Amino acid sequence: MFLPNRNALHGRPLDAADAEILGIGGADTVERFLARRDNHLTTPLHTLPALAGELGLAALHVKDEGFRLGLGSFKALGGAYAVFRLVLEEASKRLGRSVDVGDLDRPDVRTVAATMTVACATDGNHGRSVAQGAELVGAKAVIFVHAGVSDERVAAIARYGAEMIRVDGNYDDSIRQAARIAAEKGWTVVSDTSWAGYERIPGLVMQGYTTIVREALRQLSEPPTHVFVQAGVGGIAAAIAGHLAIVLGETRPVFTVVEPARAACVFGAAKAGHPVKIAHGEATVMAMLECYEASPVAWRVLARAADAFMTVDEDDAIAVMRRLARPAGNDPAIVAGESGGVGLAGLIQAMAGHRTELGLDATSRVLVVNTEGATDPRRYAELVGMNPEDVLAGKVLSQAKP
């Protein structure tokens, strides 16, 4: 499915609150926080000339978030960052003085953090980030996971000391239960989706994602003409589209949101003109994108800053995983999880059927984001036919060639 953005808000400036969150000042704040992380490194930007040539493009670049902060996903930027901000705000309030990121290891700040419990629902990656953030600052974390979250992903979260609670149903069911129990217990919900009266914390999560596009713009010799980014509830797509709209203005790239056909909640919002709850059917292999209602704050940005919405099928996502693992020519090998290559899958489909609507041609420079590596290695090996370690070993060899 393909839908140009026909919303009346399309092309208009972001709301002032969203522009503040996703603008230059917000991105500066995120970078200041990241500078304090021991394992913070700029993630790679890969150039794929062979695939670009096959598709008839001037250039194709993949921003690879599979290496982000040791968590293997772009989500490492959002949940942990929001936890840090919330702990510092609470410490400033209780201690009666300004507390900044450099104070996170101070005994009095950690004493405050130890009294705090953060909670969230997750498909896997966001909960891992929240749990890691809580462990780093000395807070407690309670993570709600639905029935479709694999045991491997649950174990990866639990390693950070989080209490894990299984919920019957899907992601949206886990969101509701997390919010209800957190309200009863006095915990702080750190969600990557918003709802009425709850927007600031999801906004902070989105603010963390601005680092991805800021790094990419620095790594590119010139800005992209087109960007394809996948969406679950819409947070990363909104963060990237919003930041691009702010920093590039009239020269911003054509931005396309890509989703699984089985869980296309942002597409549903685009069709209806506002967030709607879509029907839950058969589960999608793109597990990290299996969401059935778009985040209102993310939709508010995308209604203005996205140019098109599209969906891809199960086979499209798997085919991209395999293609990135076994590249042609001198293209590097890339480990992309089940949801990681969905933006690229959208580009491939667009070149086959929607290039005219999007203005894609031989002069186009396209940016996509590999949002996750093999966060479930066993599942990755089942789908790709190779272990992620072997793919990365091939990557090292290909880069070593003269």
From TrEMBL:
Record NCBIfam families: diampropi_NH3ly (TIGR01747), PRK08206.1 (NF006058)
Full protein name: Diaminopropionate ammonia-lyase
E.C. number(s) listed in UniProt: 4.3.1.15
Record's keyword annotation contains Lyase: yes
Cofactor needs: pyridoxal 5'-phosphate
SUPFAM superfamilies associated with the record: Tryptophan synthase beta subunit-like PLP-dependent enzymes
Species in which this protein is naturally found: Mesorhizobium salmacidum
Single GO molecular function: diaminopropionate ammonia-lyase activity
Domain Tryptophan synthase beta chain-like PALP: 41-371
Domain of life: Bacteria
InterPro entries in UniProt: DiNH2opropionate_NH3_lyase (IPR010081), TrpB-like_PALP (IPR001926), TrpB-like_PALP_sf (IPR036052)
Key word Transferase present: no
Keyword set, alphabetical order: Lyase, Pyridoxal phosphate
